[in-house]
Amino acid sequence: MATSNYSDLKVTSLTINGYAIVAPAAKVLTGNDTITAADAGVVALNKTSGAITVTLTNPTAVTDDGKRLMFVSLNNVAHIINQASGFGNGGVNEDKCTFSALVGNALHLIAWGGFWYVTGNQNGTIA
C-alpha cells in the first residue's frame, strides 16, 4: 500500500459543489472605511477614541454567495456598521448595527443572493 506525505501541501483554491471556498483574511480598521465582499474574513475594529463607522456594500449574487465576514471590536467603543439595503434585505429598519462599548463585540455575516445575512451577533443593536 502506497502512502503519501501531505505535510507540505499548499491549497491555493478550493471549490466544493460549485462554490469557491475563500480562505479567511484579516483586516484591521483604525478609522472609517468601506468593506466589500472582497474583504471576506475577519475585520478587526481597533480605534481607542471615537467610534469607527463602517460602510458595508452589498455582495454580488452568486459570485459572492457563501462568503463570510466577521467584525470584532478590539476596544470599549460603540462602533457602527451600516448596510444600505439592510441586513438580509431588511431595509431601513435593519440597516445599522451599533455595538455596545465593550471589547469582544462581534457581528458575523454570510453573503447570499446579493445581501448580507446575520449569522451571529454579540452585543450589537440592529435597527
Features:
127 residues, mainly beta, Jelly Rolls, 5-stranded mixed sheet, 12 strands, 0% helix
Write a structural description.
The chain is mostly beta strands and 127 residues long. The chain is built from no helices and 12 strands. It has one domain: Jelly Rolls (Sandwich), CATH 2.60.120. The strands form 3 sheets. A 5-stranded mixed beta sheet has the order 3-5-7-10-11, with no helix packed on it. Strands 4-6-8-9-12 form a 5-stranded mixed beta sheet, with no helix packed on it. It is globular.
| Average of pLDDT | 91
DSSP E strands, number: 12
Radius of gyration: 17 Å
Any guess at the CATH architecture?
Answer: Sandwich
Query: Largest beta sheet, briefly?
Result: 5 strands, mixed
Helix/strand order: EEEEEEEEEEEE
Distance between the termini: 60 Å
Provide the β-strand percentage band: 35-45%
**Can you identify the CATH class?**
Mainly Beta
Shape verdict: globular
CATH topology: Jelly Rolls
What is the tally of helical segments?
A: 0
What is the percent of helical residues?
A: under 10%
